[in-house]
Each structure stands twice: as structure tokens, then as C-alpha cells.
Amino acid sequence: MKTTTIKKYWALLTISWENGLVYRMSVFMWRLRRFLAAVMALTIWSTIYTSAAPEATTFGYAQSDMISYIFLISILQSLVLATALNGLAQDVYSGAISNQLLKPLSLTVYLIMQDLADKLKNASALLFEIIALFLIFKPVVHLPDLPTLGIFIVWTLAAIVLNFCISLLFGSLGFWSPETWAPRFLFYTLLQFTAGQLFPLDVLPTIFQKVMYATPFPYLSFVQTQLFLQKLTLSEIQLHSMVLLGWVAVLAFLAQGIWKRGLRDYDAAGR
Amino acid sequence: MSKPPIISITNLKKHFKVYKKKPGLWGSIQSLWHREYEVVKAVDGISFDIAEGEIVGFIGMNGAGKTTTLKMLSGLLYPTEGQPSVLGYNPWERKASFQKQFALVMGQKNQLWWDLPAVETFYLNKAIYEIPDEQFEKTLKKLVKLLDVEDIIRIQVRKLSLGQRMKCELIAALLHNPKVLFLDEPTIGLDVVMQKTLRDFIKAYNKEFGATIILTSHYMDDVKELCERAIIIDHGKKIFDGKLQDIIDKYARNKKLSLVFSEPVTKKDLQAFGDLKEFSDDGSHYTATLLVARKKATAVAAQVLSKFPVVDVTIEEPPIEAIIREVFSKEGS
After folding, report:
1. Whole-number Å distance between alpha carbons of B153 and B168
2. Is there a single domain that holds both residue B148 and residue B161?
3. Which tens digit of pLDDT belongs to each residue from B53-77?
4. What is the model's pLDDT at position A271?
5. End-to-end Cα spacing for chain B
6. Alpha-carbon gap: A218 to the closest alpha carbon of chain B (Å)
7. CA-based Rg of chain B, rounded to a whole angstrom?
8. Residue B321 lies in a domain
9. Is B279 a member of any domain?
10. Rounded Cα gap, residues A224 and A240, in angstroms
11. Of A109, A176, B120, B250, which one's alpha carbon is 20 to 30 angstroms from that of A92?
12. Residue A102 reports pLDDT greater than 90
């Protein structure tokens, strides 16, 4: 890659980051919301276990496992699901993406930089939140062995790409319809339940688990947590690796095709 | 030998399918299972060539297809039919080498980052257009000075006035010294002083860089002052393409005679020479405005001078706005 190209996208990344920090109160409130969601989930599960005997398990999870699980999934979801592309469909519909289409830059890379800047912003706040959660709930998190940690990092990056592709697909709705709120709302409702934010998915009946594993949702953070907590067998790791990468490939291909078609139908409204 | 065209379009069309909603609540309910669509021909078979360095005024009423054409020339819209060529490129392919050579400025939209000072966008554009440091500093300095915005480029864009923002928009669009410039209503909403400043600036830019410019504007002063050539479009079709003077010659039926008298005259006497548009007699000043047929204007002026106590007379073309109205009314009838 040419130096000038790197400079171009670096400039985009820094200006997006700068822009994201303009409204301090908004950044603070958003992080507070994520922090409180984690605190609530951890408090509920701590309370459930308080009344039980120290060695008791609930749905096959001991107290320390469950607290570790909720702790980990909160961190992961802060990294994976927080995205700058929530308003992409609106930007498409209103013609705001014309600015990027007119310039010598890749729209996809531009969106990646926007998303990356948002994640960097969230990650820096997350560091302080992790310390606070650690101090409050004192979770016992056992680091997995190095190869597992390596796979965990790859899976987390894949989940970020997967969520980016899903955001692109939702964004593409703006080419044909101004109403993108309803499908997004449905998606987030499903996501809250199926990505394992409130409880581990393996506490659900087998039939539900099978249905969920047929969707990309558990691959957005649940399987990563299971891997980190060393709850997966080698064959499960192999299977999930294939399915996760499969989802990334399928959704990336789909997003690329739909955007190509969408840009032909794009009417650059309002500009 | 005439210069080869830098912009060339042949039979360019853009049709949109739009949903036609029936009025009222029942119409909304019906639209849940049945929707009617109609095809709107925003641009319907336009052809023209523009040579390097020309400033062309693109004139038309709202919805005539001006902006849609500019969007196709910029590669934002995919044409339904016909292939435009700008600087030898097909704009729709959006090649970086093409995008580095043109700019589109929209009067009512901005490319500046709303919550950051304009200078941040300038530096971002420097990186995006890969402008060498020296060229960037030189151009920025020159543009900032020309538009007199030194004090405002470090203030958040959202806190700037419309005129200040427009000046910064122009700088952001011109930093890479584009060879082709599409200006869509660049002076809209600006006061007359600011309009004049921008017009002077556009003229200077064209002169210095030999840039080819297409300008759309509702203000005829913009077109009159900047463009020798005008293209008029109506309902997606081109109805005139030529020198502005030719529009006047072709469509202006009358000339305006403004008269100042030293003594009172009667309306009735003046009406014998043409269409009396204005008449004023306040006891000390006596003025009148007559519309007379273009071909007879000189003769009529001579007759008026010999018959009345005239102290001053001017013969003017009617305002260009009135001529354009005439063009549209003729095409519409």
C-alpha cells in the first residue's frame, strides 16, 4: 500500500475520532448506559447466587463462572456491537454518502475507519469500566492457554467484521426505503436475547439453541466467551471457526452485491 | 480550430420510478397492499459538448433536471441511458484519477465536518486528494486570502454564517485545483455583496486555472456575469444552447426606453409610441418607461426625442429573468 494511501485513511481515522469526541456529555452518557447494563446483569446474577450454597450451580454454571461470563460478554459486546454505522441507512437515504462517493476514496474503507474510530473511542472508555467492574464484582477470570487466546482474538476480530457486514446490510436499506427503524429495532431485540447478553445461551432448551446456532447472532460474542472460559471441545472450536468464517464470507459477499446494486439505484437525494 | 470537448454527453437520460400515493387515510391503507408507481423523466435525452475553459450557465426551473445532470456528470447517479464523458472518463466508474480532477459544490449541502473547524476538512482533503505539502500550503494561503476567511477557518463550521460556510465550502472543493467544476446554486441564500464576492472569485479561478465550469443558478446575475454560454433545460429536455446574447436576440421582443422629461407630458401622448409601463408626475419630476418592439427601438427613441422635452433617455434590454420567463412560456405553449 502506498504511503499516501495510508496517510489518507489515517487522516480519516483521526478526524472521525476527533469528531466522535466533540460532544463529551453524549460520549459519557453512552458509556454510562453500557456500564450500567453490565452492572445490572452482574448484580442480578450475584443476587441469584447469594441465596444458594457456595458450591451450588445454576444451569450448570458456578457463581464464579457466571460472573466471569457476564463480565466477559459485557466487555466483548462493548467492542463488537458498538458501531458508528447505526445511522448509515439514514445517510444513504438522505444522500449524505454523496460526499464520500465524490472523492477519491473507497466508501467501504471510509466506513471501516468510522467504525474503527468509534471502537477506539469505546475501547479507551472501556479500560476504566473494566477496572471499576473488577473492583465492584471481583470476577475470577482465568486466562486460557496461549493458542486458545490466539483463537479468541481471531474470533473477536471476525465478530467485529461480521457486525460490520450486518451494519452494511442494514445501511443498504436506505437505498430503497426511508423506513429502516423497524427492521433495526427487531434486529436489536433479537440480538439482546440471542447474543447472550443477559444469560448464557446454553441454559436454553436444546431446540432453541439449535435455532440460534443457525443464525449469526451467537457468533457476535457468545461463542467467543465460551472459548475464553474453556467450555468448548476441540471439535466444537473447529466447527464454530468454520461457521463463523462462513457467516463472515456469506454476509460480506451479500453486502458487496447489495451495495453494488444499491449504488446503481442511488438517487443522491437532497444534493 | 475549436478546442476538443472536455465534457460530452449524448442522449443522456435519467428516469426515476416514484411511488404515487393516493390522498387521505384510505389511500394510505390501500398502499399497504397495492402501490402505483410512475416514471419521472428527470433528464430526457440531453446532448451537449463543453470545451476546456468554458463557463456554461445551466438554466431551468425547479425540477427541470439541472442537478440530476450534474449528479450524472459527477458519477453520483447511474444514467438510465446515454453515457457522459468528462475529461475522457465515464464518471460512473468513479476512478480516483478522475475524481482528483473535478469538484461538485452544492449551495445547500456541505462537505465540511459540521462539528469541527473548516481547517480540519481542508487537511483531510489534502490527504484524500494526495495534495503535495507545498501545493497545499500555497493554494490554501491564496484561497483564504482571496475569500478573506483567515479569521474563521478555525471556528466550528456549525457556528459560521451561511456566507462564511459557503466560502469555506469553495476552498475545500478547490484545494486540489480541479480542472472541472460543477457549481450547483453556489450563491443561494447569500446577500448581494456575498454573491458578488463569490462571482468575482469564480471568474478569477476560471481565469487563473483555465477551469471548465458548469454553473446552475436561480440568480440571473450569476449567469449574466459569469457565462457567455447558456444551456436552458425544461422538463428534462434541452430547449436552448448558445450564447446568452442569442437568447436575448431570439426571445426578447421588446426594449425598454427609460425617459426623463423637463416638462409635464401626458400619458395618452406617450401610449402612441409603445406599451407604457411606468409613468410618474409629482409636479417636479416627470419620468416614464416605455416598452417598444426591439427592431423599432432606435426609430421610436428618435421620434420621442423630437416630439417631447426629453432631458435623458436610456435604451435597455429587458431583464434576463423576463426573457427566460418568455422562453419557458413559449416552450410551454
Report:
1. 7
2. yes
3. 999 999 888 888 899 999 999 999 9
4. 46
5. 39
6. 34
7. 25
8. no
9. yes
10. 10
11. B120
12. yes
Look up cell 402501490; give the residue.
B35
Q: Give B-chain residues touching A107 at CB under 8 angstroms.
A: none
What domain range includes position B281? Answer: 253-316
Q: Does B12 lie in the same domain as B110? A: yes
Query: Which of A4, A99, A267 is opposite residue B111, by nearest beta carbon?
Result: A99
Q: Grid coordinates 474563521 are at which residue? A: B152
pLDDT digits (tens, 9 = 90+) for A51-69: 766 667 777 777 778 888 8
Per-window interface: B 92-151 vs A, CB < 8 A? 94, 96-97, 99-100, 103-104, 106, 109, 111, 113, 115-116, 120, 123-130
> What's the CA gap between B126 and B176, in Å, rounded?
8
3-state secondary structure of A241: helix
A152 touches chain B (CB under 8 A): no
Set of chain B residues whose Cβ sits within 8 Å of the Cβ of A18: 116, 120
Q: What would the mean pLDDT of B210-223 be, rounded to a whole number?
A: 86
Instruction: Decide if B327 is inside a domain.
Output: no
ipTM comes to 0.79
Q: Read off the pLDDT of residues B114-161 as tens digits, 9 standing for 90 and up.
A: 899 999 999 999 999 999 999 999 999 988 988 888 889 999 999 998
A55 contact B CB<8A: no
Which pTM value belongs to this model?
A: 0.81
Q: Sheet holding B254-261: strands in order across?
A: B275-281, B286-293, B254-261, B310-316
For the domain that residue B94 is a member of, what is the CATH number? 3.40.50.300
In this structure, are B129 and B241 located in the same domain?
Answer: yes
Q: Does A4 touch chain B (CB under 8 A)?
A: yes
**Are B269 and B204 members of one domain?**
no
Q: How many domains does chain B have?
A: 2
Judging contacts by C-beta atoms under 8 Å, the chain A residues touching residue B127 are 4, 7-8, 10-12
